[in-house]
Give the backbone structure.
Amino acid sequence: MRRFSQFAFVLALPSLVLLIPSEAHAYVGPGAGIAVATTGFMLVVSLFLAVFGILFWPFRWVFKQITRKRAPKPAKIKRAVLIGLDGLDPKLVRTMLAEGKLPNMQKIADKGGFQNLGTTFPAMSPVAWSSFATGVNPAKHGIFDFLTRDRKTYAPDLSSADVRGSTRDFRIGDLIVPLGKPQIKLLRKSLPFWKVLGQHQIPCSILRVPITFPPEKFHGTMLSAMCVPDLQGTQGSFSYYTSATDDGDAIGGARFKVDMKDGVVTDKLIGPPNPMRVGHAPTTIPFKITIAEDKKSAAMVLDGKKIRLGLNEYTEWIPVAFPLALGAKLRGICRFRLMGVAPFKLYVTPINIDPENPILPISHPKFFATYLAKLLGSYATLGLAEDTWALNEGVIDEDAFLEQAWNNHEERESMFFEMLKRTPKGLITCVFDGTDRIQHMFTRFMDDGHPAMRDDDRKSQYKDVIPDTYAKMDEMVGKVLEKVDIDDPANMVMVLSDHGFQTFRRGVNLNSWLLANGYLKLLDPDAKRSGDWLTGVDWKNTMAYGVGLGGIFLNIEGRERDGLVKESEANALTDEICAKLDGLMDEEVDAVAVRKCYPSYKLYDGPYAEDAPDIIIGYAAGWRASWDGVRGIAHDIIFDDNTKAWSGDHCIDPDLVPGVLICNRKMGKADGSEANIADMAPTMLDLFGIPAPRYMDGKSLNSPKKAKEKVIEKEAAA
């Protein structure tokens, strides 16, 4: 029977399809419901590849030595260590450096330098890290936002990956057996610089860099990050089980009403839809929870396993296996946190892909994810693993969120230092995104005027969370300096971020503005609002609409399904809308909400420029796209207060949120212009003696003397 079950598992998993979309919050709050196909038997493949690799390694080594490309120029360094701290803000870094609170970053800066690092248009992590990897502007790598739109349906879609299931299957009763393989495609275009390094046999370890799912093959190791889905096929959907009667629906997750009798709760853990059964009913695992007499803990029995639940404590990662059919199971991991016993409240993290049994390709080589889990223990695989929506909705509190964020950070830090040890030469880079998530959720405690902090007496408790986070990152940098000698010119150590941060006090609903100004029409002229994701919009009479966090699309004839704007008139309409939005006032607070609008036809140059929003909105500091606006809701409210925990942001005018560049080598461009995140790729190639490809927009920063001379010339001229 066991052999039959394994056979069924191998047969079924290559084409399991989870085509059940939920709310696509994406980076509105990380909970986008995007269709996901599973691909299988990673453990079997990894074991086979491991044995194969050991047996044939000597032959492969000889072949590579004979055929390897040689760097055209001598390398300037032997090892590059890039520490990505997502969202690290240069203004706060400067303040803390001046106060002596970042001594290890100061050591690096003293050796080389510290400067702002320009970000991308728009200033979003998937866009900026894609430019970091490829050295090109968004029109050449094709990523412009977390979300894009389907031109045929106008529905939102994930911008970074396309996942399609098998188109063939056969059915026996209610059993569905897929016959083909799913197609999982990375939508980011252009070549990442580590692939170029790999072509020259320079070892690379790439950990948790955003927009690397699915991972590309190259000469090195990689663990994917942002946009790796959970087992539900979303960007993070938690579960919340409660006996309370006053808890409403939870955005970004699912709420389940349970009954507690004599201190016992019996229910089911809800998993992904079953792709092997007609109707795709959700898979489930039964559980039973018995509250202890002291009310401080509970005993959980889940699928025959006993788990202790401490009050306000996270469990370790718990493996879960959802039964499908023919003995096949869909495997994941999750953590539980007992939030209360009277009433009963249980939080379950999004169910992550199990790194020991990954059903999707989340690493290269495929066995690398399993290797890390076996070596270091299980870990979060979800791209956006910090559950911001659970905190937004009050399902967990600030302490629970911080504990989760630091648990995730410790996992990544252990991976980073393990691979740092195993990468004595070449490139190692790891992106830590706790700095970004914590700033998103705790900026309100540093902003006296934030709407989410009115009548909140917790400010003193959490006002230092963000500075303390920066200090902890500096401590990690100190551990790196203990292992890497920055006085040795063969070693380069760099700390960088993709963008900075600002407070987010007020929301701007672009769709409401377009509706009020006649550019967007509803099917029912008497309706006061559209539905979510622009349902109810009269597309045949709509000229423009907003999707995502930073842009407006025109409804262009021949491009969109019901386009009515002629291509010859598109630029004029773009300029007209920009002229009206430039300097847009938020009359309620008597301040400018939109600093500047950027027409895409003037902004981008590249083969994928037509995929960009036609207008990029440069919000002023303190404003951002509103929650309703990003969810595609048009109504009569253009401006509103942001009262959510998600209180800081960077999706504003890029000039207001540059990133950070701290390096033990002096860095600068020959023309004296400001460093930009797109300069990282050509810089890394140059350091290893490889000329940057001509298509790269970025320029090497290895010309500090020339850059200084240019600055002196400009100052003299001024």
